[in-house]
Amino acid sequence: MIMNTTVSCGAATGNDVRLELDPPGASDAENPVHVLGVRVDALDIPRAVARVRDWIEHDKPHYVCVTSAHGILECWQDPLLRRVFNGSGMTTPDGMSLVWLLRLRGRRGTRRVYGPDLMNAICEASLSAGWRHFLYGGGPGVPEALAARLGRRYSGLAIAGTCSPPFRPLNAAEEEAIAARINQVHPHVVWVGLSTPKQERWMAAHLGRINAPVFIGVGAAFDFLSGTKPQAPRWIQRSGLEWLFRLATEPRRLWRRYAQYPLFGLLVAAESLGLLRVDPEAP
């Protein structure tokens, strides 16, 4: 159910989750891989949920970057953004290309930690843990639709508030008002659906300003799980062709993003061959 304390601001069925356990001896979660200078954690959804649980239980504020090749390329072009990613408590492999790359680099237990699946898994864990959620992002009406769908799927889920901010940059007064509204309902998890790199910058800037132990940037998960946009079938997701499905459904918005993917392949190949090294701390 949705709590009566729901707060809204701004302009006003995903696929089933299948949690795959790692094979014996494949514990890689504490041994991340740097891809073009970005630290990517080699884990799976159960380990990601366990880490979030630990942060909430010990009140340790962190943010989570759920990234694909697109996010890595954004960091390649912007060293300050790379610092934001590397300052996260956890950066998960959202795309299959990263999963395959981490496995090639010896992290055999890596599984895809896909934004919509992570959101479903944490919402399910919340039912027994009593965690409250705030949904920040998406277009007008999207976080409200998402709250309604999650509430129907997870009976008793505590969604403390929603906010669909305007697409323009917010002024200082608006930022303070949003932070105050979120703080008013004391969420344990703030879900951020602003797309990369905007959501990562927002989480880093608001860590400490908003009193929540966990921020998770999941981008298009708001649209997929609310039913606003179509989600690729599971077999397409596993094949690594979800980018093609998304390009077919939103060509005008996404063609520039996916046109850069060959560059990602070239840069990763050069890094793997020792021809390129990116310092994670470089300014």
Features:
about 280 residues, alpha/beta, Rossmann fold, six-stranded parallel sheet, two-stranded antiparallel sheet, disordered N terminus
Short description:
The protein is of the alpha/beta class. The chain has a domain at 33-226: 3-Layer(aba) Sandwich (Rossmann fold), CATH 3.40.50. The chain has helices spanning 45-57, 69-77, 79-86, 96-104, 115-129, 142-153, 172-185, 198-206, 221-226, 234-239, 242-249, 251-259, 261-272; strands at residues 33-35, 38-40, 62-67, 90-93, 132-137, 158-163, 189-193, 214-217.
Topology:
Elements: E1 33-35, E2 38-40, H1 45-57, E3 62-67, H2 69-77, H3 79-86, E4 90-93, H4 96-104, H5 115-129, E5 132-137, H6 142-153, E6 158-163, H7 172-185, E7 189-193, H8 198-206, E8 214-217, H9 221-226, H10 234-239, H11 242-249, H12 251-259, H13 261-272
Parallel strand pairs: 3-4, 3-8, 5-6, 5-7, 7-8
Antiparallel strand pairs: 1-2
Helix pairs in contact: 1-5, 2-3, 11-12
CATH class of the domain at 33-226: Alpha Beta
User: Could you name the CATH topology of the domain at 33-226?
Assistant: Rossmann fold
Helix segment tally: 13
Portion in beta strands = 5-15%
